[in-house]
Design a protein that fits this description.
Blueprint lengths: L1 H32 L10 E4 L5 E4 L2 H6 L6 H16 L4 H20 L4 H22 L1 E2 L5 H12 L8 H15 E3 L6 E3 L1 H4 E7 L7 E2 L3 E3 L11 E3 L3 E4 L21 H22 L4 E4 L5 H9 L3 E3 L4 H11 L3 E2 L16 E7 L2 E7 L7 E7 L2 H23 L2 E4 L3 H13 L5 H13 L2 H9 L4 H13 L6 E3 L6 E3 H4 L2 E3 H19 L7 H12 L3 H4 L11
Parallel strand pairs: 6-16, 10-11, 10-13, 11-12
Antiparallel strand pairs: 1-2, 3-17, 4-5, 7-16, 8-15, 9-14, 14-15, 17-20, 18-19
Helix pairs in contact: 1-3, 1-4, 3-4, 3-18, 4-14, 4-18, 5-13, 5-14, 5-18, 6-7, 6-12, 7-12, 9-10, 13-14, 13-16, 15-16
Length: 552
């Protein structure tokens, strides 16, 4: 019995030590970005491996630039990436929440409560928290743009782009509406802004010059000086094939025996290109855009036919043009027909901005693709504006797909915390204390908002908690600018329910996974040990001193 008890104590110490290390790592990551939460958020300047700098207050952008070795800290950083990919916003909140949950789980582990019992309480709390979000959710009328824009303004209000709040909100809303496609049969909305709403950053000019085009633009010029730069109502042909002589895939040797053979080779190449150009000209396009190369001879033939040509365009840009103009991307010229020509554009124009040429294809009322042109003083400003716009686009998409919002400014988190504490009174034992740990951890969001605003945190949080315990007090939150308790309906701070749902799920499930870890096994150290054994002196195999044996 004594031997079994001693082994159990050793195991508990091992689990406790490992869990403590993981929890400390998670708390360190959370404390790193806690100051970037809320409208009074500070920014971080990060030095990247190439010697450049990144200035941002976006949680995911900060964490992905950090080089981390500790496994639990790496897992925390993955949370921000998952949150960003899934809903686009709430990356800082999910890290802060996960760190606080683990912080409050640490005393439970020190009281020798088994991790699986703690996990059970966490899972129950998550289920009840999601039910609260459904109960207090506010329906958004998608036919009223002002209601949707209020949610987008809340997202942008905590970011660098908040100084041009109305402009950025309109950019995000207009771009999302532009790329939305509705399936006529299933009524399912397809909103792929990452692929069909391209952000083009052009340094210089004023931020107010930023605009969502009713078409697309890209950083390319035509290939011949005699080609037109301005075409109204263009017929556009998109190609995925080269307009040049096809070279062999391997080295090809040609033996010439007479002085006319070389001329015949050149003539054959010219005839091949002439044939392709005739096929193109037969379709009567005004603009030809290809993803591959175009030879000088082909450019000459097209210019003579008054056709403007752009070459070596990215496939993603070609697909956006196809979606905007109604054209089809052609892989074989012999298969091209009149139906493949894009006729949905009103204007093709090539403009010079600064030292570079940009091609605009605009006036596409029926198209479901667009370009967002961002102008700004410097590249750092433009990069941060692009990150802010990405979050705003994601929030707009979330509202379009699930038109349900909840009150922000810490009101929702405090309401869930109070309801969970009320529910915990019917529980007992380890489940109760772990359930209460989740409830208390949710107060970290309003606490950080008050702290970043310079308020008296203890007094404000106590007052806020008291108001939420009263009937009908769910609308009270914290003004992130002044740190005072306000009615959130008055300051119009609303978040998408999808963001809050995903943040809670990600944070609590990640905390459960980290708590279930009792040991970290590294494959690298095993390889190093094998290398050392191979390199060990011969005397070691004969019973010489080989040092302490590591327990595997």
């Amino acid at each position: 019995l004594s031997s079994s008890s001693a082994a159990s104590d050793v195991y508990k110490r091992q689990v406790s030590t490992q869990s403590t290390g993981n929890i400390e790592a998670a708390k360190t990551v959370a404390s790193l970005i806690s100051s970037t939460l809320g409208p009074n958020a500070m920014m971080k300047m990060i030095l990247d491996p190439m010697g450049g700098t990144v200035m941002t207050n976006d949680g995911n952008a900060i964490l992905r630039e950090i080089d981390v070795v500790q496994p639990a800290a790496k897992h925390m950083i993955e949370l921000a990436r998952a949150q960003d990919e899934e809903v686009g916003d709430g990356t800082t909140s999910v890290i802060v929440l996960a760190g606080e949950i683990l912080s409050l789980a640490q005393p439970l582990l020190e009281r020798q409560i088994h991790p699986l019992k703690i996990v059970k309480g966490f899972t129950l709390a998550l289920t009840d928290a999601l039910k609260v979000i459904e109960e207090v959710g506010i329906k958004i009328d998608l036919n009223e743009p002002a209601s949707v824009k209020e949610v987008v303004k809340t997202c942008l209000g905590t970011k660098f782009g908040s100084r041009e709040l109305d402009l950025m909100t309109n950019l995000a809303y207009d771009a999302t509406v532009r790329v939305t496609r509705v399936n006529a049969v299933t009524n399912h909305k397809d909103i792929d802004f990452k692929r069909y709403a391209k952000v083009e950053k052009i340094p210089g000019g004023d931020i107010n010059d930023s605009v969502v085009l009713d078409g697309v633009m890209f950083n390319k010029d035509h290939i011949h000086a005699g080609m037109r730069r301005h075409i109204e109502n263009p017929r556009i042909l998109l190609l995925d094939t080269a307009l040049e002589f096809q070279k062999g895939e391997t080295a090809v040797n040609v033996e010439i025996t007479s002085d006319t053979d070389y001329d015949k080779l050149i003539q054959q190449e010219e005839e091949y290109i002439r044939k392709m150009c005739k096929q193109v000209i037969a379709l009567k396009p005004d603009v030809v855009i290809t993803e591959k190369g175009v030879s000088e001879l082909a450019a000459h033939f097209l210019m003579k036919a008054k056709i403007t040509c752009v070459r070596r365009l990215r496939k993603t840009d070609n697909n956006r043009i196809a979606r905007a103009t109604g054209a089809n991307v052609i892989s074989q010229l012999s298969d091209a027909s009149e139906e493949d020509i894009g006729k949905g554009a009103g204007l093709f124009e090539i403009k010079k901005i600064g030292d570079e040429y940009f091609t605009y294809i605009t006036g596409c009322p029926a198209g479901s693709a667009c370009s967002i042109v961002l102008r700004g003083a410097s590249k750092d400003v433009l990069n941060e504006m692009e990150r802010n716009l990405h979050d705003a686009l994601a929030v707009t998409r979330n509202i379009f797909l699930e038109p349900l919002a909840v009150l922000g400014a810490g009101a929702l988190e405090m309401e869930i915390a109070c309801r969970l504490m009320e529910n915990s009174r019917t529980m007992t034992g380890a489940t109760q204390v772990s359930y209460q740990a989740v409830a208390m951890s949710l107060e970290v969001i309003p606490r950080i908002l008050a702290g970043n605003a310079g308020a008296n945190v203890i007094r404000v949080i106590t007052d806020l908690r008291t108001r939420h315990t009263e009937k009908g007090g769910q609308q009270w939150g914290i003004d992130g600018v002044t740190g005072e308790i306000v009615n959130v309906n008055d300051i119009k701070v609303v978040d998408p329910a999808a963001v809050k749902n995903q943040a809670l799920k990600t944070a609590i499930e990640a905390a459960c996974m980290i708590l279930r870890v009792d040991d970290v096994v590294s494959g690298v150290s095993v390889k190093d040990d094998r290398t050392q054994k191979k390199a060990a002196p011969a005397g070691a195999e004969d019973g010489g001193d080989i040092g302490p044996v590591q327990e595997q």
